[in-house]
What we know:
0% strand
Amino acid sequence: MLFLATVINYLDRQALSILAPELRDRFHMTNVDYSHILFAFLLAYLIMQGVSGRLMDKLGTRRGFSLTIAWWSAAAMLHALATSARSFGACRFLLGMGEAGNWPGGVKVVSEWFPARERAFAIGLFNSGSTLGAVIAPPLVVGIVSLWGWQAAFLMTGSIGFAWLVLWVATVRPPLHPPEDVPPAPATQRRWLDLLRYREVWALVGSRLLSDPVWWFYVFWLPEYLRRARHFTLAEIGYFAWIPFLTAGLGCIAGGMASGWLIRRGWRVLPARKIVMAVSALAMLSGIPAVFAAAAWAALAWISTVTLFYSVWSANILTLAADLFPQHEVASVSGLSGAGAAFGGLCFNLLVGALVDRFSYVPVFLLAGVMPLVAAAFIFAGIRERPMERSST
Length: 393
């Protein structure tokens, strides 16, 4: 169910990105105009990441997910009524408010059901829904547009979430027996803002602030890059833009399996996560040769390498909240780190619009290649043990 929710999340999110070349021409939007629409989505995402995480901890994941997916599905359908950059921005803001709850809630569900050796794989599996959503979005959206027009693409993709909601309410219940190896609850209940006193929380926030914008860049700007820099038609975007997201799906599974394999062979949990993330950060330098590649197929191959290893990274960094904190705080910590991710994505996407309008895509790809290395440094410097272990010594 988490996997399917994440597929739907990215179908709704990607519809605008796929249609951006056509909608920009139709409504006369510049790169900066488009970056402002993305800004609206990410601003709402930033605000609601922390709020939705706390909401999941308070309401529980069953009720929390019901609320968030109903909200974002309705917001996705509202895009069909937009007629300008400003109205698209308003719809994206509403979409971001709802979609922000998917990952804090998903990580919390995994912490309720799975022990540490299986957590990264479980998170990688549900997170791979984002890549499947991104894989099927280009051909699906382009096909709908060719038959019924661009408004139908938003209406049809947005409506799928309501079918998921019926299944969720009818089938999902909390587990009777939670895993035994979750971090222990503190003797006194911590307030939400008390979590910011822990360097581990700041390490997660800082690392996601620098690494998640790489993913946002490819999710939001890849169709635009292929259209403007590689001269793809809308049909060619439908044929080829899914490939980097297919490799990302493989990375989600591989990332979870890699750290789980190390843990089963005697590695401690945190070192296993860190070594996999370090290798992934180095591999994401592959984005730099992508922008200099002469052939479009070579650029897509390098970009696909980046998305593969970003997803390996993501499966492990999303798991760290459940590794470090007790169950009743997992969604809150995940939401705070997600707020850092949204803030980084918000700033980076505004920067992308300005850099592309003034220069080209070259400085953007250079930045996207280097930022994961700095993010890895945050992880190694800020996360050395569980906070509960340190406070008990």
